[in-house]
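<amino_acid_chain>
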Amino acid sequence: MTEEIYSAVLGGMKVIYSRPADGNVTGLTLLPVTDKKYRRRRSAPRSMAEVKIIGDDYPGDYFGGESMKYSATTESLKYDRQEVHTDGGGTRIVTYLKSDGGLCAAHTLTHKSGRGYVTVETELINGTESDIRVEMLSSFALCDISPYLDGAGENSMLLHRMRGKWSMEGRLVTETLEDLLLEECWCYGNSKSVRFGQVGSMPVKGYFPFMALEDVKNHVIWGAQLRCPSSWQMEVTRGDDGVCLSGGQADREMGHWLKTIKRGESFKGPEAILSVCEGGVDDICARLVEAQEDALNVPPCEEELPVIFNEYCTTWGNPSHDNISGILDAIDGKGIDYFVIDCGWFKADGAPWDVSMGDYVPSGTLFPHGIGETARLIRSHGMRAGIWFEIENVGRMADAYNNTEHLLKRDGVTLTTRNRRFWDMTDEWVINYLDERVINFLKSNGFGYVKVDYNETIGIGCDDKDSLGEGLRRNIEGTAEYFKRMRREIPDLVIENCASGGNRLEPMFMSLSSMASFSDAHECVEIPIIAANLHRAVLPRQSQIWCVVRESDSLKRIAYSVAAAFLGRMCLSGDVTKLTRDKWRVIEDGIAFYKKAVPVIKHGKSRRFGTKITSYRHPEGYQAVVRENEDTVLCVIHSFKNAPEKISVNVGAGAVITDTYSHGGVNARAEDGILTVDGIEDFGGYGVIMSRGRESKKKS
């Protein structure tokens, strides 16, 4: 029998705390508020806080090397008490689990009124008589999925994850539990866990810190996302009919993490964002990403989602006062608000930019009048001046490369990759150095925008008194603090989060930035595919998308690139000093369309329609992304090889076309909630803006 300790309805979700009548563990279940029949399961509650301490017995069941769950410490944590705090802003539920020896896990679930998600944090408090060494601490654990299915619910559950690598971020991968070998054996005698995550300082280089488990028979889906900028893990575990989801800081087996918590001290794991709803993967992702909107802290200049020009794909790492002056003349009056000087402004004569970062002394050859004069020129054209830094890394040709006293080490040896070493971001000397070379530089030269790039990973970690994984965690914590420091020193500073493109697209770094580089896919056909993927992971208003135009591009190709930028923040680059008037017309029409779409890009819910894309490099078919709020619907269509001539998508009742975009006319109509676009050509880009319930003559 199972005893319910407490339950509450929060944002269309029912939160249930329960325990077996004859057992210790306290479990957390999350259900949608629905009329669906809840079935009693053979699934016993599993602990909402998973802890493994050196000295524990291991769980058995062949779990060694596969999971550190179900330890003796976890089993010893008994329900102690619960505190529920409610006010007009929301609800906070703190549940205390204690062992007989004095160890306590404080599990805090928080809900903000009107929102469709909760956040969970787990803090381990050492009330024992001695120091403890922790090998694993979960941030969250959900049990009893799915309670709407009979028995084990064979052929009924799908696990959704997002994969990522350089220039191919956010690919959705969906697998059945049977394909993952999460189907129970004949005797229910062997638990099975699928543990996945990312090790290193690029937290989305392999997987995004996200998972969703879908009951396809009952159309219910559970989702989780971690705010963890270093090594993290998630697990899907089955030991009976029910499935458990858990995750947090990568443990000792996966992330080389071991931490000492002294007597009387505590440690809190990264925050998890959780939700459940009726619907599919786009629905659960919209609820999780909503949490990032609540964490936004951007300067007022960001509210209109200004258009950016970044000169990287124009000069390819060779910016100078002269070529920037020519670019500014070409883009003057085109509706561009920010101008970013990218990498290379600091390199010595003849040196590549990617081995020169770290000293950050502007090149006298490239900027003979001083880089402050170039920033002044940018501002004179009515644009905010921005500049590129890679604050955490140093290149082989920089003097800083040899300052080994202040660089990270592993096994006592300076941590070195092919072209880079890494500052110790916990070192006060390093912070003072960066204050001089970065913050004071930005202030004295009049830069109001900084692009913070990061082009290498630390890997498993760096030397620390506890472990390599803890060294990594603390160092990235130092980086996060420096992002905050920049904003404290320059309150209206716009910060762009970049990591070889999109390798830091996780909620913590997104909360510290105005926006992020979506990818290093600069001018390839997969750009709109990646940009659409990322609607499931980050806010479109924070997803900066390259729109690179070339002198050789056709009008159709330019529109393809421009339309991709409607899926997030528009960032222009390329051969802007060489374009014909007709090509500029297509770009300027796109900028005007983008600015009309800003309200729905900022606030809305996205759905993707179209062909399943197998090859990103050689896509076939089409995709349509529909993003809508109460007032406006934006539909962005991209066609690929062998695309249909006519595309129809469901946009909901009452949608009236108010504006369209392509390289030529758009034959679009909205009838009975269906948007139809005719005359589709292969590798074309199209945009349609619709309003709800008011007639307006469409632009053709």
About this structure: DSSP finds twelve helices and 39 strands in the chain.
